[in-house]
């Protein structure tokens, strides 16, 4: 393996030091280190973070390789500073069997850019009618521990209870897409003043909040672990705050776009801003930012959702919901939280790794720690050009925006996947 000596780098914003990476771990730290034969990386002005971990990524393979593949999504993740991503189950075929999750897992290993951890479906075909092969997926080579029908809500409370009970046997977790479908039929955007003015059917906040309230009660009753995907409303934050105060085993994520963008973007009718759950109000954005800083919302997750051109560059009503996120997530989080490096590491690496049970990830750069880390230039500002993104798709809401921070290098188990801002392979 290649040895790397990163010189004069600030670990989580602390006084600059040197990091020696050898044999997959951080072998030594200190000032003035020497390492004959090691590749030297100048870390002056850079901040070293534990490699980022994303609990909510859509890689589209198998089935929609025209939008993304495990390889292209992995490259986008590495360029975004990630060393591990959890791949959602809404592929074609759906990842609801041991065979499909193992396929995704092996494709990730072959790409070798990030650790790809598959998420298994809760129900067969995401249909919400009967449980998928949860135990078989957990026992597979992929060792699935998170299960989600993301894109669809597990709306049947009896089925949700059964899933929560089942995953307790192997310390699994059910990740819920909180959306009461009877309240969102035909919905096109957030229900509010702007949807009324535009004449678009609204997606009311209560459709999310009602499912979260129901599911925290079920998780409390069963004594199981629950994770809430892409929280988007102030009311959801209130429900989560109360549940955590009671000791319910619930965690939650917020996406970068729900921390930055509002439903006012819909006035352009540009389908790039169509997402599920929809962009909400400025008051919701403010509540989510506060909740993230306080830890009521535990992590930032990208909900990276690539789509082929024909699925996005069409009329709003026919466009598929979703946005790219992997290559811009750290910049958005830095913009929202500021250079609070320990907090960023907690929300984007340590906590998501802990939730997912990815024991090799989420470790601060220190002697003996696995060398999964990223180097970021906080002083850099970059203009987002969709054609320069590694993803196979181009549906970014940040096109031509200037964002803070630039990923300079990413290391996976001591091997560089990104150097000087470019993918190594």
Q: Write down the overall geometry.
A: globular
Number of helices: 12
CATH topology of the largest domain: TIM Barrel
Largest sheet: 9 strands, mixed
Could you describe the 3D structure shown?
By secondary structure, the chain is of the alpha/beta class. It folds into two domains: 4-47 and 367-423, Urease, subunit C, domain 1 (Roll); 51-356, TIM Barrel (Alpha-Beta Barrel), CATH 3.20.20. It contains twelve helices and 19 strands. It has helices at residues 70-79, 98-111, 134-139, 157-167, 193-198, 205-222, 234-245, 256-260, 282-294, 309-312, 329-337, 341-356, and strands at residues 4-11, 17-22, 25-30, 39-42, 47-50, 52-57, 82-87, 115-118, 146-147, 173-176, 189-190, 202-203, 226-228, 250-254, 299-300, 373-383, 402-412, 415-419, 422-423. The strands form four sheets. Strands 1, 2, 3, 4, 5, 16, 17, 18 and 19 form a nine-stranded mixed β-sheet that branches. A hairpin with a 2-residue loop joins strand 17 (402-412) and strand 18. Helix 1 (70-79) packs across helix 2 (98-111), helix 4 (157-167) packs across helix 6 and helix 6 runs parallel beside helix 7. It is globular.
């Amino acid at each position: 393996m290649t040895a790397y000596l990163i010189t004069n780098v600030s670990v989580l914003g602390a006084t600059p030091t040197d990091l020696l990476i050898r044999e997959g771990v951080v072998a030594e730290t200190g000032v003035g280190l020497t390492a004959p034969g090691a590749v030297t990386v100048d870390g002056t002005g850079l901040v070293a973070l534990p490699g980022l971990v994303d609990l909510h990524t859509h890689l589209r393979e198998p089935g929609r390789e025209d939008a993304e593949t495990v390889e292209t999504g992995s490259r986008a993740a590495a360029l975004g500073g990630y060393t591990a991503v959890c791949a959602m189950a809404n592929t074609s075929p759906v990842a609801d069997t041991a065979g499909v999750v193992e396929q995704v897992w092996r494709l990730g290993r072959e790409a070798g850019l990030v650790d790809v951890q598959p998420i298994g479906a809760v129900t067969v075909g995401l249909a919400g009618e009967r449980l998928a092969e949860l135990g078989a997926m957990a026992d597979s080579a992929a060792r699935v521990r998170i299960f989600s029908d993301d894109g669809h809500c597990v709306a049947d409370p009896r089925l949700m209870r059964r899933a929560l009970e089942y995953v307790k046997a192997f310390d699994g977790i059910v990740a819920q897409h909180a959306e009461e479908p009877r309240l969102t039929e035909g919905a096109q955007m957030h229900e509010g003043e702007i949807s009324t003015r535009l004449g678009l059917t609204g997606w009311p906040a209560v459709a999310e909040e009602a499912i979260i309230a129901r599911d925290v009660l079920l998780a409390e009753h069963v004594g199981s672990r629950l994770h809430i995907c892409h929280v988007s409303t102030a009311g959801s934050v209130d429900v989560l705050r109360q549940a955590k105060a009671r000791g319910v085993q619930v965690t939650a994520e917020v996406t970068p776009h729900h921390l930055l963008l509002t439903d006012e973007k819909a006035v352009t009718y540009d389908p790039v801003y169509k997402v599920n759950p929809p962009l909400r109000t400025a008051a919701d954005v403010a509540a989510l930012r506060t909740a993230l800083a306080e830890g009521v919302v535990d992590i930032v997750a990208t909900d990276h959702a690539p789509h082929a051109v024909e699925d996005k560059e069409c009329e709003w009503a026919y466009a598929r919901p979703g946005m790219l996120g992997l290559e811009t997530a750290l910049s958005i989080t830095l913009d929202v939280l500021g250079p609070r490096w320990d907090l960023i590491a907690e929300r984007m690496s340590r906590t998501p790794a802990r939730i997912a049970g990815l024991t090799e990830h989420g470790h601060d750069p220190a002697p003996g720690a696995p060398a999964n880390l990223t180097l970021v230039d906080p002083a850099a500002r970059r203009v987002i050009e969709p054609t320069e993104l590694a993803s196979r798709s181009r549906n970014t809401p940040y096109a031509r925006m200037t964002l803070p921070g630039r990923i300079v290098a990413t290391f996976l188990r001591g091997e560089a996947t990104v150097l000087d801002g470019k993918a190594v392979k």
